[in-house]
Every structure is written in structure tokens, then in C-alpha cells.
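Next comes one such specimen:
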Amino acid sequence: MHNKKLLDELASRLSSALPFAREVSGELRTKIEQQLTRGLGELDLPTRSEFDAQTQSLRRAESRIEELGNTIEELEKRLAQFEETSSK
């Protein structure tokens, strides 16, 4: 019977400590989130919308560069043909 009383008392103490543990866990989580938010805020990072806009701009630039490369190739071919016909 003495063991049952000890187990009941221990169970009672543990169960009363759980709400405190949850509260501390919640506070700890909040503090960690605050520190992360502050730390990330100090970094010079773009927002998602800024990142997406830059990505689109880069895609347009890459496409334009490819178009210009194709134009240069075509002009080089024409120049080579012109030089070939003028040397005859």
C-alpha cells in the first residue's frame, strides 16, 4: 500500500508539472521565434515578391540574350556569304 501511495503522489506531481512545462515550452518557442525573426530581419534578404520579380526579370534577360546570340549568328553567316561573293 505504501508503494501505491508513493506512485499516486508522484503521478500527481508530474501531472501538475505538465501545464508548467507546456507554458515554459510555449514561452521558449516564442522567444526562439522572436530571436529568429530579429536575426533574419537584420539580414539584407529580399522578400518573396522581390525574389519572384527578379526571377522573372532574369528569365526575360536570358531570353533576350539568346535572341541576340541568334541574331549575331545570322549576321555572321550573311557577312561570310557577302565576303565570299565579293571575293569572286
